[in-house]
Structure to design on (205 residues):
């Protein structure tokens, strides 16, 4: 009986987090900031951006061109296919006319927390405090929490035309994954992150 009660409690928590993630995904909080942080996504074979990476980068470029910030911080290391996610985003941005001196590359991270922690260091070195966080919309709830935990004044703006969000089945799948990722984040804030498990999950959560 106790086990069933615990199971029901876990399901209730996940359902609440799912609803919060989904509700947050529908709001764009873009506003003037010191920088735009673009969180990476997969690079496909032959150095091609995944649709999600392309959508995030294009959304960030649109914000830059609209005058929301004068600099873009491009986050993401090398995953299954080289080069780094940050480098692929740099190529897209320069191809769209964004000047090289407006781009700051963070090409060592493999998780949301590492990306934002490293981005904070880059911001501190330049005297920047505020940032628009660009990612898929379902990622914004967790990304804003982590950004604020590391000391960034953060405002999320989602790439709503990313296929992983625009397609209903993928949106539901990734929103559910975000609910689990939030639980993971809160637990590891207390217990510390097991390095052996992080090696397995690298780039997945």
């Amino acid at each position: 009986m106790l086990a069933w009660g615990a199971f029901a409690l876990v399901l209730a928590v996940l359902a609440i987090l799912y609803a919060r993630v989904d509700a947050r995904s529908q709001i764009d909080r873009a506003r003037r900031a010191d920088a735009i942080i673009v969180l990476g996504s997969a690079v496909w074979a032959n150095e091609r951006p995944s649709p999600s990476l392309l959508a995030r980068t294009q959304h960030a470029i649109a914000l830059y061109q609209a005058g929301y910030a004068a600099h873009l911080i491009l986050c993401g290391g090398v995953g299954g296919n080289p080069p780094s996610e940050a480098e692929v985003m740099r190529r897209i941005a320069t191809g769209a006319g964004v000047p090289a001196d407006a781009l700051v590359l963070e090409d060592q991270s493999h998780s949301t927390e590492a990306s934002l922690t490293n981005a904070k260091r880059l911001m501190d070195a330049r005297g920047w405090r505020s940032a628009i966080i660009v990612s898929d919309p379902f990622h914004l709830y967790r990304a804003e929490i982590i950004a604020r935990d590391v000391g960034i004044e953060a405002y999320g703006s989602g790439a709503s035309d990313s296929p992983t969000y625009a397609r209903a089945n993928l949106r539901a799948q990734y929103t559910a994954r975000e609910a689990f990722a939030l639980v993971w984040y809160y637990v590891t804030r207390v217990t510390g992150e097991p390095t052996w498990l992080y090696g397995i999950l690298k780039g997945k959560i």
User: Anything to note?
Assistant: The helical segments are 2-25, 51-65, 85-95, 112-126, 140-149, 163-166, 168-191, 195-201. The chain has one domain: 2-201. Strands lie at 35-38, 43-44, 48-49, 72-75, 103-106, 130-135, 153-158.
